[in-house]
Design a protein that fits this description.
The chain has 24 helices and two strands. By secondary structure, the chain is an all-alpha fold.
Length: about 550
């Protein structure tokens, strides 16, 4: 991998503008098309708070990764950090969880585009209505989803330059349409009474617990998640010392403003008569914002929204093909996946074999999970499990590698890191039983690959490798068990009542955090980390 990257000199580099557009193209995807509707069904007007909590969780986690990303600006960086400090097994678990979330993003964006397409209101488009049935992709729709995923892949197949131009173009469009939607829906029919209607239960119709549940099960965490796109293309950015953290901050702030305003708009735009009949739980749309525009007779906005239902998922899908392929390619460096997946095209500078492998796996995933909300929940939970290793790695590097170059040194790391670990743990719990167990099973499915290649290496230093990962394995077991016995609002048996379940998770998460920090090892992977860090310019 290192040898192949010597050809990267000729590759075009991304400017700050291109980096921000890439991130926004990833973040403003199908989440804006469906997230507000899903969150409203779960918690009513209080969904606005859910978006703020989700932003806080992802924002603090991203803050931790800013230091790591600028220390190690390399392709697929998110999949490597845990291996540097705790050995290949933890690195494999973290990168596998992250890869699962990324490869699932490709079909969810395609499903979003097909679902909006299936509700086209024009008579000539009646043939599209067979693509979705009761929120699930049909056999006919599945083939259209496959075509979309293939297009996502091909747009990345021919170099970073093409990717940069495509994402810059789509991002401008994707920012404009949500902004126009907010303005027009507020101006055309905004009902302030929806926010605190006593007949519907007021601002908190279902209590406080659903506010937290909505962050994960409604796709809010999923919607904010894409900051890591910048991390994973670190060595393809001009002036990574400044542009990595600038790109993350600008993209996150812009997306937070857009998503919170969209939720505010969605709540106020719904006809009170509709809510009186169904309540918040019964709000049912095929294409949420387009359906609202139809009700308000804003025909030009309807057309624009249906167009954006292609552009937004396409932009995100295209961006994540790049990130997903780099993550899979980076996973081969520990020797626990076929090396061919890590091969970089000398001509195009992209991991083309990894891209095609991801295309095949994405098609398999969407053939099994054909529903947007289910895919969003799986993505959120697996992503959070991967993110858990970042705070642990950050503090471990502060203690054991103080001489490494740190172009950006975050403040209060010893406070922020454990807080981010706790918040990620709570958000995993909010995904509710049985999602936690299902995602953990998917992650465990990757372990046979690891053990197969360990066997080929004659189990060299396996005991040492396992020692750095015991805390994570124990953590996953605890989270699965506690999710099962936790409070009723989060799908548990209610052995521990809300909000005391949050207290338990907070205390236990801190124990696992410090166990993880103290499980640091002097790994062989640290040699590669040192090589990457030595190339970093601090001035």
């Amino acid at each position: 991998m290192t040898q192949n990257n010597s050809n990267a000199v000729a590759k075009p580099k991304m400017s700050l503008f291109s980096v921000v557009m890439l991130a926004l193209s990833s973040i403003i995807g199908s989440g804006w098309l469906f997230g507000s509707w899903e969150a409203s069904k779960v918690t009513g007007p209080a969904a606005i708070i859910s978006w703020i909590i989700g932003a806080l969780v992802i924002g603090i986690i991203a803050y931790v990764y800013i230091e790591l990303g600028t220390m190690f600006p390399e392709s697929g960086g998110m999949s490597k950090y845990a291996g540097y400090t705790h050995g290949p097994l933890l690195g494999f678990v973290a990168s596998w969880a992250n890869w699962v979330s990324l490869v699932t993003l490709l079909p969810i964006e395609a499903v979003a585009a097909v679902q909006y397409m299936s509700s086209w209101p024009w008579s000539w488009a009646s043939w599209t209505h067979k693509f979705i049935a009761n929120g699930t992709v049909t056999t006919e729709g599945l083939f259209v989803v496959f075509i979309f995923i293939l297009i996502f892949t091909l747009l990345n197949y021919w170099s970073v330059n093409l990717l940069t131009r495509f994402t810059a173009l789509t991002s401008v469009f994707k920012l404009g349409v949500p902004t126009l939607t907010i303005i027009m829906l507020i101006a055309s029919g905004f009902h302030t009474g929806n926010f605190n209607n006593p007949d519907l239960g007021g601002f908190l119709p279902y209590g406080t617990a659903p506010i937290f549940a909505a962050t994960t099960v409604s796709g809010i965490i999923f919607s904010y998640n894409a900051f890591q796109t910048i991390i994973n293309v670190g060595d393809e950015i001009t002036n990574p010392k400044k542009n990595i953290w600038r790109g993350i901050v600008i993209a996150l702030l812009a997306s937070i403003a857009i998503y919170v305003l969209l939720q505010f708009t969605f709540i106020g735009a719904i006809d009170p008569a509709t809510l009186a009949k169904s309540g918040w739980h019964g709000v049912n749309f095929e294409s949420p914002f387009a359906d609202l525009a139809i009700m308000l007779n804003i025909n030009w906005l309807v057309i624009l929204l249906y167009l954006d239902a292609f552009v937004s998922p396409f932009g995100t899908g295209v961006s994540f093909v790049a990130s997903t392929s780099r993550t899979l390619a980076a996973m081969t460096q520990t020797g626990h996946l076929p090396k061919v997946l890590g091969k970089i095209s000398k001509r195009w500078g992209t991991p083309r074999i990894a891209m095609m492998a991801n295309f095949i796996i994405s098609c398999i995933l969407v053939s099994v999970f054909k529903n947007w909300a289910v895919l969003a929940s799986v993505i959120s939970t697996s992503t959070l499990i991967a993110y858990l290793t970042g705070p642990v790695t950050l503090v471990a590097l502060r203690k054991h590698a103080p001489g490494f170059k740190r172009p950006v040194t975050i403040n209060f790391a010893n406070v922020v890191a454990p807080i981010s670990f706790v918040l990620a743990s709570l958000a995993i719990y909010w995904a509710m039983w049985p999602t936690t167990m299902e995602v953990i099973i998917v992650i465990i499915l990757g372990l046979p690959f690891y053990f197969f290649y360990e066997h080929k290496m004659n189990w060299k230093d396996s005991a040492k490798k396992f020692k750095g990962s015991y805390w994570m394995l124990a953590y996953l077991i605890f989270m699965s068990a506690f999710s099962y016995i936790g409070s009723t609002p989060f799908g548990g048996l209610n052995w521990v009542h809300y909000p005391f379940d949050f207290v338990v998770i907070t205390i236990v998460a801190l124990i696992f955090f410090y166990w993880g920090v103290n499980s640091y090892q002097a790994t062989d992977e640290m040699k590669h980390a040192k090589e990457v860090n030595n190339k970093v310019k601090e001035d």
